[in-house]
Amino acid sequence: MTPHPGNAGPPLELVCPAGTPSALRAAVDAGAHAVYCGYNNETNARNFPGLNFSEADMAKAVGYAHDAGAKVLVAINTFARAGQIETWRRAVDSAADAGADAIIAADIAVLDHAAQRATRLHLSVQAAANTPEAIRFYVRNFGVKRVVLPRVLSVEEIAKLNREIDVETEVFVFGGLCVMTEGRCAVSSYATGESPNLSGVCSPPSHVAYEEDTGGTLVARLGGFTIDRFKTGEPTGYPTLCKGQFAAGGKTGYLFEDPVSLNAVALFPALRKAGVTALKIEGRQRGKAYVAQVVRAFRSAVDALERGEEDTGLAGRLAALSEGGQQTTGAYRKTWR
Fold first, then answer.
1. Closest CA to 320 of 290, 296, 300
2. Residue 208 phi, psi (nearest 5)
């Protein structure tokens, strides 16, 4: 990328999701500066059947990305279980041997092993580090070069944080939101007995069931709990507990979180001014067609910013790809305060 003469800092890096090798190729071909992905086991926080990479897949993916000038960041971002550290250790070694450009981790044992391999380290959002003191701990002890910030900070808070730390920051700009403290959520564990933080599975498919009741309503359940009901012809959502509809206080609605996607494209100039290094798109569970479309759109917006221009039509083009057809700037604009 070539810096725009009018821009004070380096160009923003676009970090894109890949749940499969074909999605990685689609992201690279669509213009991703970097792609993040993980192995097909409990070492990554998107451990869903049919997704992710074998060790051989990862080596080929790194080669494909590097040939196109893109980076590969490997997410090994669950928390290692006592007595089973070898699974996480092997994932770190495999990523390093494959030539990954960075490892994204949160667990201090994983970070320590990766640091010994002299691998560039990015602190995962799963660490939920959002204070200068917490971030300095990871930088001082493991040499972390970048921090993926939790989706709880306003742009002003990010700017203040960046003035107090000497490390790159990466922020989410599009895709699903998480209303919980990332890396510490136990909601899915309560419903299914499986932890997203330890086994990488939030609302695991093996615990999902759809049943039609006598009235023709489709009932979506997770771990035996009713999460949502859908009338005939109504779009059917995946039963994630924090995005279900529940009855409380005499009303029925989305108790924790509305079905809505984060879209911070209008805040790109402000995020850059705040000192952000990289922009992250959520969605490793999405198909390659979705990935290609979103990456292409955001690359266009980043390039426009480098030229000192604004892509005014992007929000509309992304509306159809948003959860529930709705978009929000989330905590970046804390209008509720």
1. 290
2. -95, 140
Q: What does the pLDDT look like over 96-113, one tens digit per residue?
A: 999 999 999 999 999 999
Environment class of residue 203 by beta-carbon count within 10 Å: exposed (0-12), middle (13-18) or buried (19+)? Answer: buried
Q: CA 258 to CA 189: how far, in whole Å? A: 21
Task: Please classify residue 218 by burial: count the beta carbons closer than 10 Å to its beta carbon, then call 0-12 exposed, 13-18 middle and 19+ buried.
Answer: middle
Beta-strand relationship, 34-37 and 71-75: parallel
165 to each of 91, 206, 217, 288, how far by Cα in Å? 29, 42, 52, 36
- What is the three-state SS of the chain? CCCCCCCCCCCCEEEEECCCHHHHHHHHHHCCCEEEECECCCCCCCCCCCCCECHHHHHHHHHHHHHCCCEEEEECCCCCCCCCHHHHHHHHHHHHHHCCCEEEECCHHHHHHHHHCCCCEEECHHHCCCCHHHHHHHHHHHCCCEEECCCCCCHHHHHHHHHHCCCEEEEEEEEECCCCCCCCCCHHHHHHCCCHHHHCCCCCHHHEEEEECCCCCEEEEECCEEEEEECCCCCCCCCCHHHCEEEECCEEEECCCCCCEEECHHHHHHHHHCCCCEEEECCCCCCHHHHHHHHHHHHHHHHHHHCCCCCCCHHHHHHHHCHHHCEECHHHCCCCC
Phi, psi dihedrals of residue 45, rounded to the nearest 5°: -80, 10
The per-residue pLDDT for range 128-176, each reduced to its tens digit, is 999 999 999 999 999 999 999 998 899 999 999 999 999 999 999 998 8
